[in-house]
Design goal:
Number of domains of chain B: 1
CATH topology of chain B: Rossmann fold
Strand order of the largest sheet of chain B: 2-1-3-4-5
Largest sheet of chain A: 5 strands, mixed
Strand content of chain B: 25-35%
Oligomer: heterodimer
Distance between the termini of chain B: 35 Å
Radius of gyration of chain B: 26 Å
Number of strands of chain B: 5
Number of helices of chain B: 6
Helix content of chain B: 25-40%
Strand order of the largest sheet of chain A: 5-4-8-9-11
CATH architecture of chain B: 3-Layer(aba) Sandwich
Helix content of chain A: 40-55%
Structural class of chain B: alpha/beta
Shape of chain B: elongated
Largest sheet of chain B: 5 strands, mixed
CATH superfamily of chain B: ABC-type transport auxiliary lipoprotein component
Order of helices and strands of chain B: HHHHEHEHEEE
Structural class of chain A: alpha+beta
CATH class of chain B: Alpha Beta
Amino acid sequence: MPRALLFAFLAVAMSAALSGCGNPGLEAYADGRYQDSMTYFEEQAAKKDKNFAQHSCNLGSVAVAVGEYDKAWQSLYDASCVMNDYEAGNLRGLASLIGSQATRVFKGENYEKAMANCYLGIIDYIKGDYEKARIGFDRALECKQDAPEKYRTDFALAHYLKGRALQRLEGSNPNDVQMAFRLAKEWAPQNRFLNLEKNAKANLILVVDLGYAPRKVPSGLWGSVAEFEAVPYADRVAIVLVDGQNCGHTARILDFEHQALTVGDSPTDTVQTAKSILKTVALIGSFFIRDTWGRIIVFVVALVYPVEADCRQWDLLPGETQIIALRVNEGDHNVEVRFPVTGSPPQVRRVTVGDGDRLLYFRCGIIGPPTNRDEPKHEKGVNFAAVHEQPGDKK
Amino acid sequence: MKLRNILAIGLTLAALGCGSAGRVDVDDAREEGWGATGTTSQDIGGMCREMAGELLALPAIKEAAAPPTIALLHMDNKTNDYMDTDLVLRKIRIAMMKAVGGKIIFADRASYEAVAQERKSKQAGSVTQNAARANDKVLGADYFLTGEVAAIVKRVDKGKTEYTVWSFRLTDAQTSQVLWEDEYEFKKYHKKGWFDR
């Protein structure tokens, strides 16, 4: 067989082996088949392989978006345990330094770990368990300690919701509440819902996820280093109506593009670059080997040597998170969220506001029956009044 | 370089690079707790035995004329770890019951509503009642056993340090006097794998 043909065959075979394929869970999610999507991610997570945390995070995203809170909590908790366990997959981690980087157990970036825990807090807040919710938000903030020093406190959503949870917990230190709101305001200065006193009165909080987080793409020599590429999305704001009255628009509190771009360097990037240089040197060097078979073998080994960066990520992580804080009278309310730019289907929750406050979670782009559903009921009352925004207020 | 050596290196790299199957010890990760620096079952076991021993040595309990009644209240969790703090109180109760038998009486406050409902049904005659115990009253507590757990966590480049303090107190239910208070503390450090940084 001519040598050129052999090389071409090997190159094609390698490309075929390394190329990715469609993810049925993500496809089902995009089609609005949420049960199928969850079933797929559950099956994948049940394998408990190196991608366990990735599948569990995706499962959590779908489940929380369609209101299956118990399932979402459990999957995100399981993911969080693996993502924060320094022992899990040590051997694989070691192997990834020499072989393919994707051999390692998926543990996510610091902001992915933080958001998994933040969702745990959001779900507990939705259920009215402020003590557990506080744990979720504190865990999120702890995960951010792995970020470069300048950005360790930039997870404003967790600060804000922790502050709110502490406001509602008996015996909380007022200084902790003030600190939480101060840090939230520091990192989301444009957000008009972060006033401590107004939040003490607000009893209806909406957390709205928009778009998708930046994608990891292979970059550099042989695609050995992962870089972030923004994922465009049109809806940058959501309009909120309570009982048909316009309460204004949500405001950004967390931007995952900022999170991705400030994630910091990892020593593994250096290893990846070194591997790619080694591969190049071996490829070039193979042409200087006199022995024909030696040349072929070195060339082939160098060619198939996997140096491509590990680009796995939490696929369904949003591009940004927005909030709105309202004061409504006790009683039943229809809360509608509209996405004016794309005309993505409006989502409606029927919620009963009682003595405590309520947190509702919305994910832009959800289609089908889960868009219109009841939240657990408590007490009855009438009318609403906005604390931060007036009806008809627009951006 | 010999051909065989090259082949061996190539095969090794390919094996390392292509590995994808194999289970991750997810259950072990959960068992170890949050970042492997939280409270483990061994910590709880040792702590409960120690606390039970101290409580039993208290004069108010040891030298009481009649067996005192203790009710367990909620323990506050101020750590970043999801855990059943009441489990610790239950374990202390079990350890004390095993150690002293009937010398201490424990009031089950978790069943208070169910007990009240059952008594109401008995008094209404909708369920049977042991006539000899018709005038028995629900136990009042002489002492409350409660506490809290708090932690200070520091993450550094090379790992994580967690300083955890479990504190318990026994309060006189009549006077609110704190009869006894003690704490159990530990500091744990967990080093990150180099490839995890």
